[in-house]
Amino acid sequence: MSKEYVMSKVAIVYWSGTGNTEAMADLVAQGVSAKGGEPTIIQASDFDASRLKEFDAIAFGCPAMGDEDLEDSEFAPMYDEVEPLLGDKKVALFGSYDWNDGEWMELWEQRAENAGVNVVDSLIAKDYPDEEASAECMRLGSLLA
Ligand SMILES: Cc1cc2nc3c(=O)[nH]c(=O)nc-3n(C[C@H](O)[C@H](O)[C@H](O)COP(=O)(O)O)c2cc1C
Questions:
Q1: Which ligand 1 atom is at minimum distance from the Cα of 102?
Q2: Would you say residue 4 lies in a domain?
């Protein structure tokens, strides 16, 4: 009898202004694939609650914007809508920042945990992901696969 393997379907939903978080999203997707999962990279403006049922796990990516905030025109409205509907799906949070120390991610992770989201890990990279951050992005993807 042949064995059936069910691949974990992982959405990588991100917003990126200058490409740094986008580069992280690509690396997270590579990490999902390396572990045998099926990644789908989706821009924040193309995602909403109606697509949640397609995926077993979701990595959300958004850089530090405003003043230690999520990007407010596309990412935050999408995230506000889906956060209460994530159930027990595995979720990871990632994003790039520059001049502060990653406070936006601490606030984001706290908010998600308060909402009962199953946050398995989070990851920040200063500007464009360097070699170490790139390896961390791939590891994050492997956690969701
Ligand atoms: C409007 C704006 C607001 C920002 N606010 C912050 C901030 O509050 N804290 C911080 O560390 N970096 C901040 N940054 C820097 C970005 O987070 C950083 O450039 C990041 O690498 C951008 O990622 P992206 O290339 O995916 O857009 C801000 C950048 C812009 C353009």
A1: 11
A2: no
Residues 79-113 pLDDT 10s: 999 999 999 999 999 999 999 999 999 999 999 99
Q: How far apart are CA 83 and CA 31, in angstroms?
A: 23
pLDDT, tens digit (0-9, with 9 covering 90-100), for 56-84: 999 999 999 999 999 999 999 999 999 99
CATH code where residue 93 lies: 3.40.50.360
Whether 64 is in the pocket of ligand 1, judged by its Cβ within 6 Å, is: yes
Q: Is the CB of 122 under 6 A from ligand 1?
A: no
CA of 36 to the centre of ligand 1 (A): 32
Contacts of 97 (CB under 8 A, 6+ apart): 63, 64, 104, 105, 124, 125, 126
In a domain, 3, yes or no: no
Task: Over range 22-50, report the average pLDDT.
Answer: 98
